[in-house]
Structure formats: C-alpha cells, structure tokens
Amino acid sequence: MKIVRADVIVTCPGRNFVTLKIVTDEGVHGIGDATLNGRELAVASYLKDHVCPLLIGRDPGCIEDTWQYLYKGAYWRRGPVTMTAIAAVDMALWDILGKVTGMPLYKLLGGASRESVMVYGHATGRDIPEALDRYAEHIEAGYQAIRIQCGVPNMRSVYGVSKGSGMYEPATKGAVEEQSWSSEKYLDFVPKLFEAVRDKFGFDTHLLHDVHHRLTPIEAARLGKSIEPYRLFWMEDPTPAENQAGFRLIREHTVTPIAVGEVFNSIWDCKQLIEEQLIDYIRATLTHAGGITHLRRIADFASLYQVRTGCHGPSDLSPVCMGAALHFDLWVPNFGVQEYMGFPQEALDVFPHAWRFERGTMHPGEAPGHGVDIDEAAAARYPYDPAYLPVARLEDGTLWNW
Ligand code: CS2
Ligand code: MG
C-alpha cells in the first residue's frame, strides 16, 4: 500500500481547525489534527510545503519510520509547529492502520485498561456565585471531575472565564486582546473560591484549577500550601515550566498535586519534571506532542515515576484529537483524567465521530481507527477566520504570562 495524496484542510466551524487527510492507493484514508491555536496557518504551511510532498509514495504502515524520518529528517528538531505537523501525520497513519486491520485504535495500542474514560469539564463564572452555579450543573450532568475558574474582584479580565453565555474561546478575531493580571489579587482571592466549592458541594467531586503559568515558583508554593485544606485533584501550570528545576521549590512547600504540559511538544520538555517526580500529571496532548507514537513514549516514561496522564483537551483542539485521545486514554495504564470542554454543533457536524459521552465519562467507540472523519463539503462552508490568543500585562504594564 502507498500514500498517493496528502491534503491540508483548514476550516472554521465555530473556530479554526487544521486537518491533514492522507489517502492511499487502495482508497483508504486517515486524518490527523494539526491545530495550533493562533498559529494555524504556520502548521498548514509546514505540512503543505514541506511534509506532504515527502509522504507521497511512502508505505502508510511504516508509522515509526515516518515519525523518525520527519523528526530527524528536518534537522531543526522539536517546537510546536514541527511537532504538531508530525502529530497530524502520525494520527492519520494510525487511523489508516486501524481501518486496514478493522481494529479501533485502542486495540492496536494494547486494548482497554478500563471501562471508560473519566473526563473533566469547565465550570466558569464571573464571580463565585456564578461559578458555583456552573459547578452544580456539571454535577447534575454526572461529571466526577470539574475544573473551576472565576473572575477575580477588581481585575478587569482573567483567564478561563467566558465573556458571554457561550463556550469559552480564548482566541479573539482582529486585534490581539490585552488582559491585565495581578498575582496579589489572585492569590488573596482564589482560596475563597475553593472554600466555597467545598462548603457547598463537599469533597465527592475532583476539583481542578488552572493557574495558567501566571505565578512565580514561590508564589505557586504559597498557593499550593494555602489550598491544601480543599484537596484539589490538581493545580495546573502553576508557573512557566521552561525551568523544570523551578518546580523543586514548589514541591518543597506543598502536597497539592501539580499538572503541567499542555504547551510541551516533546519528552525533553518534561523529562526532569517526571524523573524527579516534580509533577503528578503530564498534560501533553496528541496534537502538540508528536501524536500517538511520541505521546506513548512520554506516558510510558511517566509510568516509571508514578506520573499519570491528564491530556489537554480544550475546544481549540479538534474533534479528531478528541477522538484519538479517547482511544489513547482507554489504553494507557497510567491514566489520570481527560479534559473535555465540548464543541459547538457546527464543529461536530464537520467532524462526524464515534465517541460517546455518558455522565462524566467518555468512550471512543469501536469504529476502526480513531473513529473521527471530516465532512469536506461541510468544512468548505467555514473558511479560515484569523484569531489570536490574548496577551497579559501586569497592572504596571509589564508583559506577563497569559
Ligand atoms: C487551557 C487551555 O484547557 C486548558 O487547560 O490551558 O484552554 C488553553 O488556554 C488553550 O488551549 C490555549 O489555546
Ligand atoms: Mg491549561
């Protein structure tokens, strides 16, 4: 079997997604997610101009060799654009392998390690009462794990809170939004949010929160220590993780579990965090961390140190990533939790899928491959619409971590 076509499809059903479609000479096709929020066209070009021509004529069954060819063959290794492009190829080739063998992806990986996949949803509010209402709705929907984010008094804007009633989407069309941030106001406020959740709902649900890279290590240590009575499932991205050793400072002060990794794109970004057990969950995801072939290596390495997976799964990764991730989650022995924000209906119409949601858990389904396809006619109805992630500034104007 040979690859005869490799097409890049950019579509915007509710938000921009980039999809790679690989077709073989036997008419079997596979698709992969290549979406990088705010830099979609960079990955589309990397694929169209530099990768797709190299795929023509290759055996789609040589998944590992293709991964190594694209990783080592580029000379310039790693980085979000490169690894997202490689991930899309990898996801599409695993999809083809599943279709050719008639096996769902999780069975190709080694079979199910659990009945279904526990997912966490997003409860957000402009203030504590509104956030608690959304939290109650998630409990009602059967979620066992719920992330909570809330506006901070006297702060103009904050990460993770929808502006209106719709789904939270960080990227904005037109100019790059500038948000302001005050760690002091946040640190004084956020323990009150978790206290309110536990006072109202008790400890029966897993409570998660995303700090979103905004604190210094010692501030993150202070936060972790201050919220220990509320027993979070994890505090996510407490500080930027380029300096992996910086997490030793957090670990010295608090037992609040830590999740990091959604911005990582290779095992090298997290090797020290894992082997020194500086984190408890690795958030790297299929689309940005080199696909099934590489994320499997990261997860296996993490299992040596009792670090579990907690894959990133926002609505700005496509339903293709979601479907493939659920297969990965069903198999991976050191599974923790899977993020699931949901998708607008127009996105679900463009990407028919086999997964199902049932009271806080999901299952990828039994379709061969990853069980997600793309309706190209529907995709063509939603042309690319440029949108960019915000930046954050401290109240004195210093550019900060968004
Ligand atoms: C967030 C993301 O879901 C999360 O944990 O960190 O929403 C992140 O802000 C976006 O994926 C960025 O595009
Ligand atoms: Mg996050």
Automatic annotation (TrEMBL):
Domain Mandelate racemase/muconate lactonizing enzyme C-terminal: 129-257
E.C. number: 4.2.1.6
UniProt keyword Lyase, yes or no: yes
InterPro entries from the UniProt entry: D-mannonate_dehydratase-like, DgoD-like, Enolase-like_C_sf, Enolase-like_N, Enolase_C-like, Mandel_Rmase/mucon_lact_enz_CS, Mandelate_racemase_C, Mandelate_racemase_N_dom
SMART domains reported for this sequence: MR_MLE (SM00922)
Gene Ontology biological-process annotations: amino acid catabolic process; carbohydrate catabolic process
UniProt entry keywords in alphabetical sequence: Lyase
A GO molecular function held by the record: mannonate dehydratase activity
Top EC class of this enzyme: lyase
NCBIfam families (UniProt xref): ManoateDhtManD (NF043051), PRK15072.1 (NF011654)
Protein name: Galactonate dehydratase
Organism this protein belongs to: Paraburkholderia phytofirmans (strain DSM 17436 / LMG 22146 / PsJN)
